[in-house]
Amino acid sequence: MTQAPTPTADTVRRLVRTLLKESAANAAGPDVRPAAEGGEPATWWVGTRHVLRLDPDSAAAARRRRELRLRDLVRPHLPVAVPTSVAHGEWAPGLTYTLDTKLPGGSGEDHDVSAVGEADLAGLLTGLREVPVRQAEALGVPRTAPRSLEALRREAERAAERLAAADEFDPARLQQLTVPAAVQLAAQPGSAVLVHHGLTGDHLVVSGDGRVRGVLDWTDAVLGDPAEDIAGLARAVGSPAAVRAATLAGYGARPCLRGLWLARCDTVIHLTACLQGRDDTPIPLLRTRLRRAWEAILLERVTELRDEETDE
């Protein structure tokens, strides 16, 4: 696997000078800064209008090349913006970069999604379902099998006991997901769609009025279980908003409830891993995701979903 040296501000500045005319005319070079503090400096803000992404190894480079093609495929199907590359190529032998136009808005981690924003999310889920599976597969988007909710439930129960010892979570809450329910909520055959598979808050671009204006980072997209994106939204914007958006998108009881339980089990497992030093995600962020995933949806809506499931 090709491994690159760690990029510096000078590395980025020299690259951007060759890509942007206004930067080439500026003797001091463009204003560049890492997009995130700490971690690998793979993403850089370039001035106020662009973002540069540098792939650190050959596997990431392969995903980036696929992402650039996938963006063009999904863009006509979505009501929200997808990043546009103004330049792309290699910044080191075998390692790619893309210089994208920055989408206006802020991170979904910092802005609440409004009711109209939930309609934007519904349009996102609808559009993903409409992307032709064969065309996505031809681009190299991999297929993934649905996860076993029963296996995830057992893992979450073990993790919940550890969280209870740390006074972080009441394991009795997981008793709502019974063994029969886990079996009943298994994914249905033939239900695979294009799944973003990374709908975290920091991949949602949200405006000040709560509208969802764009979706970032399509490198982990797969063809698989649509409940995974419902789960992502439950962690990002809360279970009630995720269910409302999925219902507006035409999803029924099974994928909605399956998505909620994927999110709830995942957040318990991930927080436990972090507290044990096996995950370097910031603990406050994981606590926020757990809280959002476990937000109660209205009792009437839960009953309605269960009734629909019984009728199927």
Which keywords apply here?
10 strands; 12 helices; 312 residues; three-stranded antiparallel beta sheet; 46% helix
Describe the structure.
This protein has 312 residues and is α+β, with helices and mostly antiparallel strands. Helix content is 46%, strand content 13%. It contains twelve helices and ten strands. It has helices at residues 9-19, 21-24, 58-74, 115-130, 133-138, 149-165, 179-184, 227-237, 239-248, 253-275, 283-293, 299-311, and strands at 32-34, 43-46, 50-54, 85-92, 95-101, 106-107, 193-195, 204-206, 212-215, 222-224. It has a five-stranded antiparallel β-sheet, sandwiched between helices. Strand 1 (32-34) and strand 2 (43-46) form a beta hairpin. Helix 4 (115-130) packs across helix 9 and helix 10 (253-275) runs antiparallel to helix 11. It is globular, with a radius of gyration of 21 Å. Residues 299-303 have low confidence and may be disordered.
